[in-house]
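Deviations from the work plan: none for this task. Representative record:
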Amino acid sequence: MKVAVVGAGPAGVRAVERLVAAGLSPVWIDEAPDGGGRIYQRPPPGVNRDARTLYGFEARRATALHTALDALKPRSDWRPETLVWHIRPEARQLHTLHRGRQAGVDYDAAILCTGAMDRVIPVPGWTRPGVTTLGAAQIALKTQGCGIGGRVVFLGTGPLLWLVAYQYAKAGAEVAAVLDTTPFATKARATPGLLRGGATFVKGLYYIAWLRRRGIRIAEGIAPLAIEGDAGGVTGVAWRDASGREHRVACDAAGMGWGLKPEAQLADLARVPFRHDPLQANWVPERDAAGRTPVRGIYLAGDGAGIGGAEVAEIAGARAALALLEDAGHRVDPIETVPLDRKLAAQARFRAALERAFPFPSHLARGIADDTILCRCEGLRTGELRAAARAEAATGPAPEMNRAKAFTRVGMGRCQGRVCGVAAAEVLAAELGCDVTAIGRLRGQPPVKPIPIPAAGDAP
Amino acid sequence: MKLTRLRDASRPRISLTLDGTPIEAQQGDTLLTALLAGGAGHLRESEFGDGPRAGFCLMGACQDCWVVVEGMGRVRACATLAGQGMKVRRG
């Protein structure tokens, strides 16, 4: 039986572990030179930092995952630095690209563990050099020992906002301010549910308390106004507080993000249906609790199947592999699956509380100013999408996201709407006075990332 | 944009060029780190005239850090390791 696993983050590692334990040797593909995913990404050779400084409280988890990863490489068909740029479910084939070389990988079953990326809301000035996602700020520090600047503002909401600010301050960067768009009261209301998270919740509180103790400027319930700058880059961040007063802090870089969104393009190309999850405010591919999708032979695990975090991803990866094995006729003892199912259910309840504590502020996305760049690939300004929506609504059928893309090029650029898609849908929904679910989502298109033309020409 | 080296900043040095100007970097740097910690300021100009860009996601997804390396062609600076003697052009 031919099995492929895409992704070698927490979900992929634990999936491959179960497959190998059952005597299979899956093709195991990751776009990065090494596994670990983004959360446990290893620095390149030559950068020497111990696990404790790299991963903090998660050092033990990271080390355990890396140990498993390294042990599994020789027991699988390990293919790093390989992009899966297309999947054809009818042919049960992945199209891959490795150092400019094309290959087709046939599979009977595939587990897609494709991870997540930051969800962003465009702010005036957000395309300036010196503005990155929160995830980017963390990757720069974790894998390169670098801060995105010398004096940094962190802006957005979610656990990552506070974690990255803490990591920067601890590494010796000056954190000019932490600006959380979620009011304190919203977080406080979610506390009873968050207590289910145990250690995860306590760690979160620790980061916030640590930053406060250091006297780092913290503002909650804010609305960002602009990331200011000049020819040299970022010079400051301006915001409005809950009482309507405007503030500004000087900085030379800003990291921003509002939670995460699944990197689910391959699930999309595999024709897995999507549904809008109102709690996560994300479109997520459909799957059951074990990771089975409505498409035969396609399984999903980790943040690519809906945001759950690294701990959930490890459990979900193992569970999806067991589901695959069960479906393939292997005997799987419920003694293995029952505890995993129980853990996943408990984690889902904690996750729900976390989403309520840091809700996606769709009102900020809907209120983006007309002259703010919305789609950074195409240099498209927000007002252009609004104007197109109005014109369309007056004459044609009810616009949806892909139609808006055709008319304005929103999401048509090199990132395929990964960055602007969420905010663009909110802008379009607001302009048309409808719910964001009615707008739909940008469909995935092969290649899921840009590839050289000769490579596409050689397609198997 | 100026990346600030905070940790493990005394690795062996390598040198490359950006549009002919020498840049000193460190072994283990990505091209993005090498250039932006080395004073390049930005990596490319937006095709739509809205100003310079220097990457955004650092995880190979946003495609906003494209540069051109002699012999390699167009690459994502965040996902490409810097090498001794590389000749880089802004993307």
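The mean pLDDT of chain B is 96.
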